[in-house]
Amino acid sequence: MSDNYIFTSESVSEGHPDKVCDRVSDEIVDLYLSEEPEARVAAETLATTDFLAIAGETRGPSSITAERVEDVARKAVKDIGYDQEFFHWKDIEVAVRLHSQSTDIAMGVDAGEDKDEGAGDQGIMFGFACRETETLMPAAIQYSHTILRELAKDRHAGILSQLGPDSKSQVSLEYVEGKPVRASSVVVSTQHSEDASQQDVYDMVRPYIERVLPEGWMCPEEEIHINPTGRFVIGGPHGDAGLTGRKIIVDTYGGAAPHGGGAFSGKDPTKVDRSAAYAARYLAKNIVAAGLADKCTIQLSYAIGIAQPISIFVNTHGTGQVEDTLLASAVREVMDLSPRGIRQHLGLNRPIYARTAAYGHFGRDPNEDGGFSWEKLDLVDDLRTAVTSGGLKTAAS
Question: Which of 10, 77, 81, 359 could join 145 via S-S bond, C-beta 3.0 to 4.6 A?
Answer without folding.
Answer: 359
